[in-house]
Design goal:
Structural class: alpha/beta
Pfam families: Abhydrolase_1
CATH architecture: 3-Layer(aba) Sandwich
InterPro entries: AB_hydrolase_1 (IPR000073), AB_hydrolase_fold (IPR029058), AB_hydrolase_sf (IPR050266)
Largest sheet: 8 strands, mixed
CATH topology: Rossmann fold
Organism: Microvirga vignae
Helix content: 40-55%
Shape: globular
Protein name: AB hydrolase-1 domain-containing protein
Distance between the termini: 22 Å
Number of strands: 8
Order of helices and strands: EEEHHEHEHEHHHHHEHEHH
Strand order of the largest sheet: 1-2-4-3-5-6-7-8
Number of domains: 1
């Protein structure tokens, strides 16, 4: 039976611990971790979805982000926090970064190779695609204005399968009057988005060559946020990398093809 334990690292970084066992896997979640206010139900639902992608006999930590990020919040600041947590609390681990979390995972592996045994980059890379960068800039603008409907509409066609996009839009319509209760405050969202929208992120990718961990990059060929060129560039620069692309899939690959993704991950970690 899958067990869940919630807690806080460094008095400000929330986490969910799943299961037990040796060789922990530390997961850096996507941007939804700071866009929506965390609730116990949402936290457990996200953790279950992530756990389906990973071996059931490994201890898993799903990391959140600072709920009140300071001014000047950056990927480097997040990486320093995560490095402290791994060094002092968890120990060297397999690290997986999903979407936004891929920025953190790759930088952590490059700057602190002693803490990352294996690296999995899920629907992510070291930089956005041009379309993805434009989307992040629109999200920042919407967040500044408190336009949560516009912010979430950026994900309105995120799924490959039309019926899932329809369900997403239906859910957004149902939550229309309560979005302000469910979303984080605009400053938190903007600071999180600015951390990865900085023009220097991905500008010089040579640092990827410092990654020593075995690396798996998984993505979809129709991902609007991280395109094939970005994933291939990362795979070329990281010394030991396996690249797995799912033809026609989008940014929601881990949800729409969870079983197939789990098989690839399991084979990599075997």
């Amino acid at each position: 039976m899958m067990t869940f334990e919630t807690g806080i690292f460094l008095s400000r970084i929330p986490f969910v611990k799943i299961g037990s066992g040796p060789n922990p896997i530390v997961v850096f979640n996507g941007g939804q971790a700071f866009v929506r206010r965390p609730t116990p139900a949402r936290t457990e639902r996200d953790a279950k979805r992530i756990a389906r992608l990973l071996p059931s006999d490994r201890q898993i930590y799903v990391m959140g982000y600072d709920a009140a990020p300071p001014a000047g919040y950056s990927v480097d600041m997040i990486v320093q926090d995560m490095a402290t947590i791994l060094r002092d609390e968890i120990g060297p681990s397999t690290v997986m970064g999903i979407s936004f979390g891929g920025f953190v995972a790759t930088r952590l592996a490059a700057d602190h190779p002693d803490l990352v045994k294996d690296l999995i980059v899920m629907v992510s890379a070291h930089r956005f695609s041009p379309e993805g960068q434009r989307s992040i800039e629109r999200q920042i603008e919407c967040a500044w204005q408190g336009d949560f409907h516009g912010l979430l509409n950026e994900f309105g066609l995120a799924f490959r399968r039309p019926w899932l996009n329809w369900l997403l839009r239906l859910r957004l319509w149902q939550e229309w009057d309560k979005l302000h209760e469910k979303m984080s405050d605009p400053a938190t969202i903007v600071r999180g988005l600015h951390a990865v929208a900085d023009e220097n992120v991905g500008k010089d990718p040579s640092w990827l060559q410092r990654i020593q961990a075995r690396t798996l990059i998984i993505g979809g060929t129709h991902d609007p946020f991280f395109d094939v060129n970005a994933m291939k560039e990362a795979a070329h620069l990281i010394p030991w990398t396996q690249l797995k692309l799912f033809d026609g899939e989008t940014h929601m690959l881990p949800i729409e093809r969870a079983r197939d993704v789990a098989k690839v991950v399991k084979a990599f970690l075997w």
